[in-house]
Each structure stands twice: as structure tokens, then as C-alpha cells.
Amino acid sequence: MSDSYRPSNSPLTNGHHHHDNHHHRPASTLPPPHPSLPPTPILSEEAKSTIDLLKTTYKKRGHFDSLRKDIYQSFTDTDTKLHFITALEKIAGAEIERDPSLLARDKGKAAELIEATVLRGDTYSNVEKAVEELLAARRAEIEGMLRGIMEEQGAS
Prior knowledge:
- With about 160 residues, this protein is mainly α.
- The chain has a domain at about 45-155.
- It is about 60% helix and about 0% strand.
- It contains six helices and no strands.
- Helix 2 (about 65-75) crosses helix 5 and helix 3 (about 80-100) runs antiparallel to helix 5.
- The radius of gyration is 19 Å and the shape is elongated.
- The chain starts with about 45 loop residues before the first helix and ends with a helix.
- Mean pLDDT is about 80; it is low at about 1-30.
């Protein structure tokens, strides 16, 4: 999920994101890995290949999309979503009040400027925490699916 954790690629945006790529932060400015994650181990080429095959199989069988949709639906049923939307509306309103010319600008450019303000703050932290909790609740299920795939691949 780390590749898609930026807001414009997040499953939480419900597909409403810009199709231009110039507003994404360059890779050099991405935040460090989450503190609860262990450091990335150095893996052999064989291990990397096995992981890639496992990831590809998991996605091809639709498990990733199903999990993403379930997590999104679970998230939409929480108060965190309402608090998140309220916080975004408050930030957008404050930015427009600070700079009324945002209303006259191209919507994409105005959205980029407001998104930059959101990214500088901690607005996403509660959302990230809620999603992490929803994923943690499904961890045993996810691990079971992955083990099943590994067993099938080992048997072939």
C-alpha cells in the first residue's frame, strides 16, 4: 500500500484524483517509512522474485481490489471520514479566505495549492491511523491468503 498512500492515489479518494502527474511530490521528498514498520531487509534476487510473484498472484486473483474496496467501505462507515471531510472543507475555506484569487484560478491549480497546504499539516494522520487499524483487523485473513498462494506455488 505504500506506493499508493499519497492522497491522490489513495483508495480513499474514491477515484477522484487528477490525471496529471505534475502535482505529486518528487520521490526525494516522500515521507520516511512508517515508524511501526521494520527497516527494509536486504533481499536476495530469488527472494525478490518470489515476493513479486506472490504480489502479482494476489492482485491477479482480485484479492487486493477486494480488500481495497472492503477497507474503503469500512472507512466510509466511520466518524473519521466525516472528521476528515470537515477538516478538508475547513482548510479549503481558510485558504480561499486567505487568497480569494483561488476561486478564479483553474480548478486543478487551485486544488494543487490547497492539497499542498493539507500535506503540510497533519490532516491525513487520523485517516492513516484508521486505515491501518482496519488493515490490522484483517491481517490474519490477508496472511492466510498469502500462505495459501505460497503453498500452491511451492506445490507447482
